[in-house]
Structures are given as C-alpha cells and as structure tokens.
Amino acid sequence: MNAQTQPAALAASSLNINLTDFIDEFGDELLESLNRSNPPVYTGSVNAHRQLVMDRLKRKPFAAQAEVVQAITALLLDRNEQAGIINAEMGTGKTMMAIAVAAVMHAAGYRRTLVVSPPHLVYKWRREILETIPAARVWVLNGPDTLLKLLKLRDQMGDAYDGRQEFFILGRVRMRMGFHWRLACWKKRAAGGQLLAACPDCGQVLEDLEGNLVTVEEFERGDRRRTCSSCRGALWTLIRPGKPDGGNRRATILKSMCRIPTIGPVRAERLLNDFGEEFLATMLVDNVSEFINLMDAKGNFVFSDRQAKRMERSMANIEFGFGEGGYQPTEFIKRQLPNGYFDLLVVDEGHEYKNSGSAQGQAMGVLAAKARKTVLLTGTLMGGYADDLFYLLFRILTQRMIEDGYRPNARGSMAPAAMSFMRDHGVLKDIYTERDGDSHKTARGKKLSVRTVKAPGFGPKGIHRFVLPFTVFLKLKDIGGNVLPDYQEEFVDVPMAPEQASAYQRLAAALTAELRQALARRDTTLLGVVLNVLLAWPDCCFRPEIVKHPRSRDTLAFVPAIFGDEQLMPKEQALVDLCLEEKAKGRKVLAYTVYSGTRDTTSRLKKVLEQSGLKVAVLRASVDTARREDWILDQVDRGIDVLITNPELVKTGLDLLDFPTIAFLQTGYNVYTLQQAARRSWRIGQKHPVRVVFFGYAGSSQITCLQLMAKKIAVAQSTSGDVPESGLDSLNQDGDSVEMALARQLIAA
Questions:
Q1: Which residue of 86, 111, 221, 655 lies most exposed, with the fewest beta carbons within 10 A?
Q2: Alpha carbon 235 to chain centroid distance?
Q3: Alpha-carbon span 494 to 570, nearest angstrom
C-alpha cells in the first residue's frame, strides 16, 4: 500500500461495521420495514378450531410446537401456498409437529398423507403416528411388496371412505424413478418354420425401417421399448426384478425370517411349524410390523419387549421377496395414480434432496408435483451456499421459481437457471489467470483464462423472497427452559509440542516448495495431496509419514514418528483431561474423529483413554444403520464412559441423550453433519446441560478449516434469523473456500 492510497483506506475502514453491531443498531427499523413489505403469515393469533384438533391428539405438542403447526397450516390453508418448510433444530420434535400438521389438515379435508423418510426411521414414523393418532391407518411402503400395496390402493380408489386418516410411509431408498421391463411380442410362425415377431394387440407382423419382416430372434436383441406402428400398442411388458429362491417357498420364508434380529434357524423352523407357510408369508408381506406381536396358542407373546424393540428398528431395512415387482414406487405414483391422490407430502430430512442430479432428489420433485401440498422438515435448510437451496426450492415451490424466471432451457437443463439463481442471490467469484504461452502457431502472447467459483453466502433479497414467506423457524431454546437444559459450545486452541511444531513447519515448507514447482509446470495433481497431509499430519504423527507423488510415486517428504506408543499427543492429553473431568461429574463423553484407513486414529484413542482408567467403545461403520441405536444402548448398559465414532455414522435419527458432553477432535467440512452431530444429545428428553468442545492445533491448517466452517455456519444460521456470537462463530473472519484459504497460507509461508 503506497502513501497516497493509505488515507483513503483508513477513511473507508472507519465506515465498516460488523454485522452484530449493525443488527443491534438498526435491527428494529429493519424488522419494521420487513414486516411492512412482507406481512407475516402468522402473528400469534391462535385458530381455535385447529388448536382443538391438537388438543384431541393422544400425544399433545408443546406450546412452541403448536405455534409452528398453527403457522404452517395458516400458510397452506389460509394463504393456499404450495409448500411450507419447518426449519427446526435437531431435537425440537419435527416428527411430532408434522403429524400434528397432518391431523389439522385432515380436519380440513386432507385425507391422505405421504411421508418420505430416511430408511432407518420408517418404523419410528409409524410408531409415533400410531402413538399420536391411534385410529390412523398406516401403510409402510418400504420393500419389494410396495407395488402390491400401491395396486391395492389404486383398486380401492372408488371405495367408500370410512373417515380415518391415512398415512403412507416411503423409505427414501425406495423413491427412485423407472421400471423393470422386457420386450414382448406374439410369435407368428411363417413358411419354412421361421418365427416372426407380431404385435400382441393387433396381430400385425413387425417390420424394420427398410420394410423387412422382423424375426423373434432379431426383435429380442433390441434394447429399447418399442410400440406397434399400426395400433401403437406396447411391445414390452413389466417384469419382476430378481428371481425366487429356487421356487422353494418354505426355504424363502425361512431365509427371510432368519434375517430378523433374535430369530435363528431353529426358532424360524419352530415358528413355521406353529403358524404355517401361508400365514407367515402373508404377514411378512402385508403386515410385517405386526409380526413382532405374534402370540402363541396360550395368548402369550412369542417375543419379549426388548426383542420386539430390536426387531422393530431393523424392519426398516429388511426386504422380503414375496411381493410383486415392476414399476419403482415413484414411477407408479406418477403414471398410475391421479394428480392430488396424496393430499399432503411430508419430506423428512429435506436438505438431503438438494442435489441437482440425484435420483432421490428428482423423485422427490415428482412426488411433490403429485401431492396437493408439501411440508419440508429440516434442521439445516442450507449449508452456506445459495445453490444448496435452488433445486430444493424448485422442487417444492415450482410456481414461485418459474414466476421469477428460473425455468429449464430448451434442452430441459436446469443448469443455466441454477447459475442465474446463484448470480442473483448467492456469491460467485471470477478468478482470472494470465500466463505466457504460444497463441496459435505464429505468435506469442498472454493467455487469459477465467474460472467462476462459488463462495459461501446468500443475499437478503433471496431470503426475503424464498425463505421467509414459506419457512417457520424453531430453535431448541424456544421450546422453553423447563423442557431443555443449557447448551454450551466452546473452542479449544491446543498448542503443538515443540518437536511436533518444528516437524510440521519443515513438512509444510518441503511440500509447499514441491507444490510451487508443480504449479509452475501447470501440474495441479499435488494440490489435494499437500492439503490433506497438512490437515491430517498433526493428528497422525504417532506413525511415520511418507508423502509420495500420486503419479510418479517419487517420495516428496518423509517425517518419522514424533510420538511413541506410550506418549500422549497434546490433543489426546486434552481429550483425556476432558473425559476424566466429565466422568468425575457422572457425565459420559461422545468423541468424534473423522480419519479412517491408513490414518485411522480410533484404535489409538481407545487405547489411550483405557490406559487412563476410562471404559471406551468404538462405533464403526460395520454396525448396521438399523442396529446402531441398539448397539449404543448395549454399550451404555455395559457402563462405558466414552463413545468414539465418526459424526457421519450418527448424524440423523439417533437420540444420544446418555452423552451430554461432545468432543470434536476433527470436524470435516460438511455443515449438515457438523450441526446435526453437535446437537445429537441436546434435544427433548435431555436432563443435563450439554457441552460441545471443538479441538484444533494452533498454527496448523486445521484452524483455517474451522474458520471456514464457522463462516458457513454463520451464513446458514443467518437464514434462520440468528446472528450467533459464541462457539465456532467466534473464529468467524472474511475468507473464501478452504482451498483458497489454505493456498494463501501456503504462499505466505
């Protein structure tokens, strides 16, 4: 900076004000202006009839939950909007609120509710619906028998309605588009014994493009669905995917039952002898959830309560091969059921459907288009970037998005509309790169290239247009102090040991030099390697580190092990101190670590903690999703003090109320995972204050990553009306993507 520009910069800096101070000073006027331009849908005036519906439920919502239900139903019924979003923190009871919304909508004439749920929560949804609305009819669409159930539903469309509310629960992994088919024709014998392909409907012999008659052999070699040129009849038919187990019905039933926890071959045989093939097959297909309530001839339950609970949780991911195949469920609903057959669509964990090309995301869009109204449930509406919202909004608020000009192009692609949305409401940065090089064959000159990248951020105009009018926000603190305990989030900056710090500096210098040389040769293959090593090494320096070039396999750097098996690294010591401190208070600790494979730290952590006198368990990915809650409860019964796991394994559907203290040794970069993992134990039912601790090595790239996560969290929380001032947000600074932040750090070194 030269002397002439310095005063101007100082003058400009005096005009700067941070966001928290700005809100403090001008917040009231901004809120007033916002309310004038966009009047709130719900201002707290309770609809007595809707409140009466909620009061009649067997499980009644808390006051704050009832307010959310009032607001959403006012949006959908009074304003007649297409969709509403419940953006509620983890643990506030989103399932309860959605069921209450469905009950109020049912009183207004909305008969059928379709719930799209994570697969391991399907039966939890069923259980909570029946606990809240005992008279409800609940259909579970979560297996190969789904099509059979949908066919029955279609057949019942003209039946008299008995007035009971109906729920249909579809596991997320089942909601793909498409169908299984094979070519089909009528085989017509011609002169000479030749078999010709003919249309099964009109009998017309098929011809190819040149007018030649098509043989059956030639027809069956095709790979596309065909129609008859004469009557337009289908020359294909639906088929069942997969084959039965050798046609042996008894063996198939036995095999299916043995997949259920607590049932082995001996018990399966006994059950088969007691109840018969037909009875068990029918139950496994049509009413699998009632299987756990089997009674013997004396009227006693076959399974104990604990067995029944384990079986119920596992049912979500179990498939039984007795049903019909053909259309995927969403494809069947799209083609075979009339528009508006489902009155209300409830989408649980709605942020999972934000990706543009995912099969589940596209299927969700189809289901939303077939339903009269949609309610989206999420704890983290956006992850910091504007395009996190684009496809989600387009799928549930199609009309609003098209009104604003965001529509597919002539080829049906949404990419230009998504980019336009990012430019209007997000943050895009153009990065210009200039380099010398040959231009064509006869001249030398400068080559200028432009690369557009996205950055965290979502503009107030977008929030005002697409978020505030359709979203109801609920935080755990809104539930009331009598329901939830205190929540504290803190960051611990751990100094590296002298030898560790000097080794890190040498490693960073060596890799930076190699990276600079590679970038000078326009070789970017080292970038990912260098960043990963610099992030992970401080946590993994108990073993030698060899860094090799991904292509040439040349050794770029070697660092011997800094800590022996008996030496504690600073982070490990900090974790041990924390766990011992919490144990003395009678509190259990949940410790998160993200490294696996060659950099796996869990085994060492377990050993370190056990040597300190702590009882430790490690939850790994090998434990089935449906069994994780049972597994954790077993470990708690065993009396563990610390549970070590990856946050990805417990981010949804698990209530870890037994672990009021949570420690992040590493975080990863996914905001959804971080926020959901951090709140795993702070939810309705928790009686102890919750403490969340983030550990990071001072002077390392880990701090930069935490700063980026802080920024993304701040952006995500700003969309829900929060400007937090604690925890990770205390690290909040201006910054770019993690790659840019780390690149600057490396260049400055």
A1: 221
A2: 40
A3: 7
Structure tokens at 323: 């049903």
Domain ranges, ordered by start, for the chain = 64-177+326-424, 181-238, 264-317, 425-458, 485-496+565-736, 498-559
Residues 6+ apart with CB under 8 A from 534: 504, 507, 508, 511, 700, 701, 742
Q: What dihedral do alpha carbons 42, 48, 54, 55 form, nearest 10°?
A: 140
Q: Do domains 64-177+326-424 and 485-496+565-736 have the same CATH topology?
A: yes
Least confident among 34-48, 268-282, 346-360, 695-709: 695-709
Q: Tokens 């190969």, residue?
A: 144
Provide the β-strand partners of residue 691: 488, 661
Bridge-based pairing of strands 186-189 and 642-645 is unpaired
Check if the beta carbon of residue 60 is closer than 8 Å to that of residue 89.
no
Q: What is the residue whose two structure tokens read 């751990």?
A: 494
Q: Which H helix or E strand runs over 574?
A: helix 570-584
What is the band of 54 on the pLDDT scale with cuts at 50, 70, 90? very high
Nearest to 176 by CA among 353, 24, 311, 296: 353
Would you place residue 730 in the very low, low, confident or very high pLDDT band (cuts 50, 70, 90)? very low
Q: How far apart are CA 519 and CA 48, in angstroms?
A: 68
In angstroms and rounded to an integer, the radius of gyration of the C-alpha atoms of the chain is 30
DSSP 744: H
Regarding beta strands 443-455 and 427-439, do their DSSP bridges make them parallel or antiparallel, or are they unpaired?
A: antiparallel
Whole-angstrom distance, CA of residue 153 vs CA of residue 651:
34
Phi and psi, residue 448, nearest 5°: -110, 125
3-class state of residue 601 by DSSP = coil
The structure tokens listed for 247 are 């046609």
pLDDT band for position 113 (50/70/90)?
very high
Residue 537 φ then ψ, to 5°:
-55, -45
Cα torsion angle, 458, 464, 465, 467, sign? positive
CATH number among 3.40.50.620, 3.40.50.300, 3.90.110.10, 3.40.50.150, domain 485-496+565-736: 3.40.50.300
d(CA 16, CA 608): 48
> At a CB cut-off of 8 Å and minimum separation 6, what does 296 contact?
274, 302
> Tokens at residue 98, please?
């959605």
For the entire predicted model, the pTM comes to 0.61
Q: For the chain, how many residues are written?
A: 749
Distance CA 115, CA 129 (A): 11
Q: How far apart are CA 529 and CA 507, in angstroms?
A: 13
Task: State how far the Cα of 148 lies from the Cα of 691, in Å rounded to an integer.
Answer: 48
Q: Which residues of 324-335 are buried (b: 16+ CB within 10 A; e: fewer)?
A: bbbbbbbbbbbe
Cα end-to-end span (Å), the chain = 20
